[in-house]
Amino acid sequence: MTSADPVTRSAGPALRRTGPAPRRAGAWFGALGLATVVPVLPLWLFCTDPGSRRTAILVLLGCALACIGGIAAFQRAAGGRQSYAAIALAEFAAPSEPGEPAAPEPKEPPRALPSRRGMTTRSLAWYVGLALLW
């Protein structure tokens, strides 16, 4: 059986959409985690007092770990972990209820593929920037 068979397609569980609260919480935890991790390297390199440097770095890394725990908790509250196959199967399965709209499918392939030049330029800029730091 392939994933295109009707029997396989309709057997998947319904994909639960995540509400705005878990997404917003995830964005806040991600921003807070990034804000706590960024000062670690400057503190490590430029702080002269080893005791206060160690304390500040441990506090910042502890906050980052708490942010990771918060993201994991909100991910579980938003529907839990699912395998990629289950998500893909539920996304492309036929609607389980008659009133539910089906996922729109393209009728033909796109005429023009998007350019990857911008992404390539950003990657090169990041590489050069990181190489100059070292």
Could you walk me through the main structural features you see in this protein, from its secondary elements to its overall organization?
- There is one protein chain.
- By secondary structure, the protein is an all-alpha fold.
- Helices cover 63% and strands 0% of the residues.
- The chain contains six helices and no strands.
- The protein has helices spanning 6-10, 20-37, 40-46, 50-77, 84-92, 117-133.
- It is flat, with a radius of gyration of 23 Å.
- It starts with 5 loop residues before the first helix and ends with a helix.
Number of strands: 0
Which residue ranges are poorly predicted, with pLDDT under 50 across at least 5 consecutive positions? Answer: 5-13
Q: How much helical structure, as a percent, in the residues?
A: 55-70%
Radius of gyration: 23 Å
Structural class: mainly alpha
Percent in strands: under 5%
Task: Explain the layout of strands and helices.
Blueprint: H1 6-10, H2 20-37, H3 40-46, H4 50-77, H5 84-92, H6 117-133
Helix pairs in contact: 2-4
Compact description:
With 134 residues, the chain is mostly helical.
Give me some keywords for this one.
134 residues; mainly alpha
